Amino acid sequence: MRSTSPVFTGLPTTIFEVMSRLAIEHGSINLGQGFPDVDGPEDVRAAAAKAIMDGPNQYPPMLGIPALREAVAATEKRFFGLERDPAGEVIVTSGATEALSDCIMALVEPGDEVVLFEPLYDCYVPLVERAGGIARFVRLAPPDWAVTDAALEAAFSDRTKLVLINNPLNPASKVFGAEELSRIAALVERFDAYVIADEVYEHLVFDGLKHIPFSSLPGMEARTLRVGSAGKTFSLTGWKVGYITGPKALIEPVAKAHQFTTFTTPPHLQKAVAEGLAKGDEYYRDLAGDLERKRDRLRAGLEGLGLQCLDASGSYFLTADIRPLGLGDDVEACQRMTREAKVTAIPVSAFYRTDPPRHFVRFCFCKRDAVLDEAVARLRAWIAGR
Ligand code: PMP
Ligand code: GLN
Question: Is 317 exposed, middle or buried (0-12, 13-18, 19+ CB in 10 A)?
Fold first, then answer.
């Protein structure tokens, strides 16, 4: 048999799918893969249902329906003061995953170096390598996952083409501050690089912090492609509606990658997301406020069991140190917790390419309070019975 792509051949199935399958198999509470257990706003879902029945259900425009491109631009202006031309600076994609793939395919040429921050979301490295790029890592160390100048300097070189930054950061739930972002931006400028800013958790920020889009930093607008996801903003992760915004010159090649990847995204979902984005500021406030309360609830529960959690200022996730469980590494611990305690989490080592820490697991807290409480109760009973 002829060989198949070395980038994908032999790659393990993504940890999110692996743990979700295991959770189903064992009737476990799934605090692994990041998805809410209550669907997002009823009016947004009703708008999608109505749009299916009213039609048309044919190919919408390749770059996204005008109403959604306008809504994305208006939302970026409302929350972050960014100015985007909906006609040429916004592309609607089938999820942030497609958006990331389009951006990487459009920017990276064989031999280009791409700076990535580790821990990182698991699709980044394969996509970079599929484009022929070479990953260079900036390692972020717990507990605060700070960006050091030494690590930055070591990762950049004259071959750096692109920096891919996820903020807020999955799985660390770090929200990058202005000072750190400016230091990264200075290197981007110095090495004349582009930036992909994966900002899917832009509205899920807690503790009074404010999300700072990379595009809003001085000099970065012309270099940055910003990626968002309606799945996160509306608690509808299965919808897979994402967007890319950026300067025309970069959007142009990205649109060509998009046209031969999915070409477009279901029109009824686009219409509904356009309506959703226009919701008042209180919707966005309540979304973050509810999640912040859930984070605190799960954190209190886990710490009551002796599992220390790291700070988590954004996204859906809490990282807990599992050493007190005495269960071996994070992969073993997550397997046993699923089979024996019937609670599922994600081993944080899955977010590293090399030499991962093996004592952290990631718990997802975007679940009903009763489910979070039941998960903690199951863990308590299990720990007591061991
Ligand atoms: N980026 C990050 C950091 C994520 O956590 C996720 C997970 N959903 C995605 C991208 C993908 O988003 P989507 O479901 O819209 O493809
Ligand atoms: N982003 C989600 C997470 O981190 C997973 C999405 C997926 O499974 N592709 O849990």
Answer: buried
